[in-house]
């Protein structure tokens, strides 16, 4: 079951962190259509967050067509994102883990590494976005 790790010091609102973590799990294939998200009460208890925050995130995920709320049953994944789960046999994940370990050994903090990854990713993918996809 999905477990949210909210970082209060990140500057990102808690509801946005829930959305981002859910989308990441969808991109990585951790969550698949048919999977049930934790109830708002479970998230409130485990992440120590306001219930309205969880409901706001789930409503936004539903608006995006990624989840569906079923009365009396819970919230279920109905959509998917990306294809990062297809790289399992390519060695890309292992290379990235090694690179991240080296970055950490060089004294970079998580936020530094993430900023660098986003910056390089933006530059690489802006050069040649696939047809029909926004850059």
Structure description:
With 135 residues, the protein is mostly helical. The chain has two domains: 8-77, Orthogonal Bundle (Arc Repressor Mutant, subunit A), CATH 1.10.10; 91-127, no CATH class. It contains five helices and two strands. A two-stranded antiparallel sheet has the order 1-2. The longest helix has 18 residues, at 110-127. The chain is globular, with a radius of gyration of 17 Å. The model has no long low-confidence stretch (mean pLDDT 88).
Low-confidence stretches: none
Count of runs of 4 or more consecutive helical residues: 5
Taking Cα atoms only, what radius of gyration do you get, to the nearest Å?
17 Å
**What coarse outline follows from CA principal-axis ratios?**
globular
Tally of individual domains: 2
What's the story with the biggest beta sheet?
A: 2 strands, antiparallel
Distance between the termini: 32 Å
Number of strands: 2
Give the CATH level 1 class of the largest domain: Mainly Alpha
CATH architecture of the largest domain: Orthogonal Bundle
Structural class: mainly alpha
Which fold does the CATH topology of the largest domain refer to? Answer: Arc Repressor Mutant, subunit A
Strand content: 5-15%
Would you tell me the overall average pLDDT?
88
């Amino acid at each position: 079951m999905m477990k949210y790790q909210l970082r209060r010091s990140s500057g990102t609102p808690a509801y946005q962190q829930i959305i981002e973590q859910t989308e990441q799990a969808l991109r990585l294939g951790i969550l698949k259509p048919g999977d049930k998200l934790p109830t708002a009460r479970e998230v409130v208890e485990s992440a120590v967050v306001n219930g309205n925050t969880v409901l706001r995130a789930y409503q936004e995920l539903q608006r995006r067509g990624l989840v569906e709320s079923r009365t009396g049953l819970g919230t279920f994944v109905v959509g998917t994102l990306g294809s990062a789960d297809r790289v399992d046999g390519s060695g890309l994940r292992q290379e990235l883990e090694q690179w991240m370990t080296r970055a950490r050994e060089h004294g970079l903090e998580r936020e530094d590494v993430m900023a660098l990854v986003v910056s390089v990713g933006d530059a690489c993918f802006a050069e040649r976005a696939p047809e029909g996809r926004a850059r």
